Amino acid sequence: MDLTLGKEDIGKLFVKYSIPSVIAMIVFSLYVVVDGIFVGNVVGAAGLSAVNLAMPFFGIAMALGTMVAIGGGTITSIDLGRGDKEEARRSFSLAFYILTTITLLLSVFTLLFTPTIAKILGSSKELMPLVVEYLRALCLFLATFVGSSYLSANLRVMGKPNHAMVADIIGAALNIVLDYIFVVKFGWGLAGAGVASGLAFTIGFLFALVQYLKKDSILKFVKTNFDAKKVIKIFYNGSSEGITQFAVAFSTYIFNIVLMIKIGEMGVSAFSIILYIASLVTAVFAGICNGISPIISFNHGAKNKERIQKLMKIAIITISVIGVLSTILMMFGGEILISMFTEGDEALVSLTVEATRIYAIAFIVNGLNILASAYFTAIEDAKTSAIISALRGVILIIVFIILLPMIFEETGIWLTVPFSEAVTVVVAFNYMRKSSDKLSLSYGKGNKEVI
């Protein structure tokens, strides 16, 4: 790892690590958005609904992958911060082998039980063929799809954020090109969208993989014994981020079920468009958090509280400004972007515009919740991070999606996320204040507040 993580000016490090990560995440999100535009305009609103119904299942797959990737990456980063390169390599390799095994088994499971999975996801008889088609196409590439994210994350751990950015950009750019070929030119529909994504990110995976095979690579694949304690630690440290991904999948599932009941297929289509747009905003937040996590972990391993505090202050200010600007933009300019997902369906556009203006209120604070969760993961406080993730993505979603529609009817559905994020941010910042005292006792120096 680049040892300047413990010495270089924090402001410069923030820019150096967050910008490549943000660019990579935005490019990845753009691939998702373009995917939706192709599906919406070629397959239609039914295609958007089918993709959204399938997403919770792949969200669970990504949750498992994220759990191992973040958990393993945190341990690897801390090992490097302590100067133990060999142990870092063993941690990195063990997490990769676990991740590959899990995703391959999940792919087989999906192929064997696709129709049953589609029913559980809430698919209607009309949408069933489309949902099955998409699930089967994309599940073939789960190992490389999730694996590319893991390898990219550890390139940042090694101090190579630009390499990570290039790996992500390659996958995203290829997906856009292949989407056009398979969906538009070949007319393969949702199967084409799934295959395009899978092939593109397999290429991105291979590009990242090459970086670890170089002689001068800090992290390498090595033989390692199955260490049960370390495996448990990997899952524990990554549990909060895994829960975050699971929460996204779970909330999408709950929203799909409620929308199918209250509004119907058009409601699910509208929600699908909202999630595509929201992914652009959360990509920026996630990019910042992913970029600075290795810096936090390194300085945590080096017991340097002051540098962590400075970094967090910069991140909080940056994310807050971006959140407010994003809300304003979606309040007044969202219709142009929404119209790109569907051609001539004025009713769908009208519903989505109205819903987006309500949903976008969440952008003011949800970036801060993502940051808080990432911060606690980086300092190996997975329990607190998991609480934050579970609150905003599961517990409060259930509470508010039941209560708010009783008061505000259909509007209450779209208010669920803003209410959940607002309550969570209060809890999250309370935990962060308390963490300052714990760090002071643990490091044995410094009395400054984290925020």
From TrEMBL:
Signal peptide: none annotated. InterPro entries: MATE_fam, MATE_MepA-like, MATE_MepA_subfamily, MdtK-like. It is a multi-pass membrane protein. It is found in: Cell membrane. The chain crosses the membrane at residues 21-47, 53-73, 94-114, 134-153, 165-184, 190-213, 234-261, 273-293, 314-338, 358-378, 390-407, 413-432. Keywords: Antibiotic resistance, Cell membrane, Membrane, Transmembrane, Transmembrane helix, Transport. Its main location: membrane. NCBIfam families: matE. Belongs to the multi antimicrobial extrusion (MATE) (TC 2.A.66.1) family. MepA subfamily. This is Multidrug export protein MepA.
